[in-house]
Give the backbone structure.
Amino acid sequence: MNSRTLLTSLLVFTFFINIVGQDYQTFTSEGFKVKCDCKLYVNSTYIQMAKKQNITNIKAAYVCAENEDNPEIGVINNININDESQSYRNLSQSEYSKFEKKFLSQYATNLMNAGINYKYITYQGVSAIEYTFDQQGIPTKSLIFLKNKKSYLLQVATRKNLTTKFSTIKSSFIII
C-alpha cells in the first residue's frame, strides 16, 4: 500500500470516527437531531433580542460552546429554526417554490449588501445559501435553508478547523 493511499484511508477513518463517535443530541419537539461536541442549550439571549425586534416566529434557538476559555481553539455552535408557516398561509402548494426562492434571494441580497460572499448549494434536497464571514473577529460559517415551512440556520464560529467543525454539524443535522 503506498503512502498516499494509506494517508487517504487514515483521513477517511479519522473523519468517520469523529462523526460516528459522537452521540446525536435529539430535539423531538423541535424536530431535529445533530452531532455536536458540546451540549446545545436554549439560546435565550438570541430569543430575547429577536423579540425586541418583533421577530415572533422563532421555533427554536440553540447554542453551545467548546473550549470557551481559550479563544484560539474555542467553538460556538448555533442552530436557529423559525416557523415560516404564516408566509405560506395564502399560497397554493404550487407557489411554495416561488416563495422559497424569493426568501433565499432576499437573504442573499442582505448578505451582498453587508459585503458577505455567499453561494447557493443544494442541502437535504432543497436550495440553501452557505456563507462565511467574521463575527466579532471570529471566522464563521453559516447555512440557511427552508424545509417543511421552516427556515433553518446552522452556524459555527471558530478560529481553528472551521471547515471541519462546520462540516460535522452540516453533515449530521437531520430533520426528524
Notes: Residues 17-21 have pLDDT under 50 and may be disordered. DSSP finds five helices and ten strands in the chain. The CA atoms of residues 47 and 55 lie 9 Å apart.
